[in-house]
TrEMBL record:
One of its GO terms (molecular function) is DNA-directed DNA polymerase activity. It comes from Crenobacter intestini. InterPro entries: DNA/RNA_pol_sf, DNA_pol_Y-fam_lit_finger_sf, DNA_pol_Y-fam_little_finger, DNA_polymerase-Y, DUF4113, Rev_trsase/Diguanyl_cyclase, UmuC. This is DUF4113 domain-containing protein. The keyword tRNA processing does not apply.
Length: 341
């Protein structure tokens, strides 16, 4: 790319800040791993002003930057790998960049060798303009509190199934296999433990929320055991197929042409009015499974009803961008201007 990439990075940061309101950092490098490493450094060092271009550094400064971070901070090197690398004397990112590629490949395989070569500036991992179609969809959440009632589990399973089915239709796939998992709190050893998982093969692969939910509920009924306090449940869709070419069972009611039209209508309504606007009634059978959200951040940029409210002279004024200014200047021209707005 031509031009000053640091300036380009600053422009990207400013646009994200203006359009989304979220502070960000930009890392630029000849490889994906180095770009992520630069992003990490830009977050840690205020003098970089949120942007770092690897090629703008001299070789001496590049070596110093790599030596300043432990090898565990390199993208793709986890906790266990960093311990094994430390046993070989590789403790920093610079140590890994200067290691012998053949030795690393023999000890850890081609994946870690690629990380090493990426640190040396050789691009081995391509950037994906379009995310590849997923081969498996998993939707799972831990509960905000432990759940014992079957109704709460039914609501959670139905919710996860509906979300997975929506993602399935979004990528143009159908599922031939559905699985349900059920877990108690594994870290409360004083409580009775129960962990179960079961699968059901669909006679006809589909992405129909109704069909998938019926199958998921049947699995839950087989797995559910009273007397346990459950902490987590999840749904997995597997054996995914892409495209219209598939074996059709004309005796199955799931092949009705009205099914696709119904799902298209469901997706269109939820896309226009918000996810969850139209859903199955079973999702409302219980709410104790919901995650804790007491400290969730307000949706300042997407929800008008969650904009900060500033009270003045007996009326409410909405001004998210200048809330602090309003509080400091509630008299004079500023207040009169707000009243006019």
């Amino acid at each position: 790319m031509e031009g000053d990439l640091t300036v380009l990075g600053q422009q990207i940061r400013a646009r994200v800040e203006q359009w989304v309101g979220i502070p960000s950092c930009v890392g630029i490098g000849p490889s994906k791993t180095l770009a992520k490493f630069c992003n990490h450094l830009a977050k840690r060092h205020a003098k970089l002003a949120g942007v770092l271009d690897w090629d703008s550094l001299t070789p001496e400064r590049q070596a110093k930057a790599l030596a300043s971070e432990p090898v565990s901070e390199v993208w793709g090197i986890g906790r266990k790998l960093s311990v094994q690398l430390a046993d070989m004397g590789i403790c920093t990112a610079l140590d890994l960049a200067r290691a012998e590629p053949a030795l690393i490949r023999r000890r850890f395989g081609v994946v870690v060798e690629r990380v090493l070569r990426e640190l040396q500036g050789v691009s081995c991992l391509t950037l994906e303009d379009v995310a590849p179609v997923r081969q498996q969809l998993v939707r799972s959440r831990s509960f905000g509190e432990r759940v014992t009632a079957r109704e709460d589990l039914l609501a959670a399973i139905a919710h996860h199934t509906a979300q997975a089915a929506t993602d399935l239709r979004t990528q143009g796939s159908v599922a031939g296999l559905i699985g349900v998992q059920l877990h108690t709190h594994r870290f409360r050893e004083q409580d009775p433990q129960y962990h179960a998982c079961d699968w059901h093969a669909l006679p006809v692969p589909c992405s129909d929320t109704l069909t998938l939910t019926r199958a998921a509920i049947a699995l839950l009924n087989r797995l559910y055991r009273p007397g346990y306090a459950y902490k987590k449940t999840g749904v997995t869709l597997a054996a995914l197929e892409v495209g219209p070419a598939r074996q059709i069972d004309w005796l199955s009611p799931d092949t009705s042409p009205n099914t696709a039209a119904l799902m298209n209508t469901l997706d269109a309504i939820n896309q226009r009015y918000g996810r969850g606007t139209l859903k199955l009634a079973v999702e409302e059978m219980g709410q104790r499974w919901q995650m804790r959200r007491e400290r969730v951040s307000p949706c300042y940029t997407t929800r008008f009803d969650q904009l900060p409210r500033v009270g003045w002279a007996g009326c409410d004024l909405l001004d998210a961008a200048s809330m602090q200014t309003v509080r400091l200047h509630t008299t004079g021209d500023r207040a009169e201007c707000l009243l006019l707005l």
